Amino acid sequence: MRYLPAMLALATTLAAADHPALRDPSDPFWKERAPAVFRVKIDTTAGAFTLEVRRDWAPIGADRFYNLVRAGFYDDSRIYRVTGRFAQFGIAGRPEIARAWRNIAIPDDPVRESNTRGRFAFAMTGPDTRTTQIYICIADLSSQDKDGFAPLGTVLEGMDVVDKLYNGYGETAGGGMRGGRQGRIFEEGNTHLDRDFPKLDHLLHATLVQ
After folding, report:
1. What's the confidence (pLDDT) of residue 179?
2. In this structure, what DSSP letter does residue 179 have?
3. How confident is the model at residue 18 (pLDDT cuts 50, 70, 90)?
4. CB 167 within 8 A of CB 202
């Protein structure tokens, strides 16, 4: 059954989502420096995939992503924007947490690598607007390099899982940061997405792995 893992992971997910730093972006917790290389296993209702982050590619972004993962920010959220070009996630499933981070941006990193298939980076709307949302390149998006999208790393394992994430809603569920369709996700979280876009795949748990 496709959603059985969600029930099995419930206790872990709830514990992670209650980390006190999630409600306070100014907490010293968020200052931790990421390792030079680290891996993140993403368990979803479509299967699991593993991301490898290389800090020298985008150190500011790598530190943000590392700390969000270790706090459980992404746990029990939805992969709300999937097209033939990319898959995007990164708005917390609990609206009180999503709202706390909506405008907590980090400075840009220089673009040192290209947005080719399998690479991933923070979504943004312009200079110095990266917050928590991540996209994975399903197609070659190297044309975005000139616009400042700085890859953090590569899908190390499970690109076949990324390819099969539910894409039937296209731009209508998440709409992109520029599209003006994300307000209800921030205000209502999973309640809105599960009611209005029930086929979206769930991001069950993001875990730092050896």
Report:
1. 61
2. T
3. confident
4. no
User: CA 125 to CA 177: how far, in whole Å?
Assistant: 6
Nearest of 186, 26, 14 to residue 96 by alpha carbon: 186
Residue 179's domain comprises 33-209
Specify the number of domains making up the chain: 1
- 186's enclosing H/E stretch is helix 183-188
Instruction: Read off the CATH number of the domain in which 198 is found.
Output: 2.40.100.10
Mean pLDDT on 112-132: 97
In a domain, 8, yes or no: no
Q: Is the pLDDT of residue 178 over 80?
A: no
Q: Does residue 148 lie in a domain region? A: yes
Average pLDDT, the chain: 92
Backbone angles phi, psi at 183, to 5 degrees: -55, -45
Contacts for 28 with CB less than 8 Å, ≥ 6 apart: none
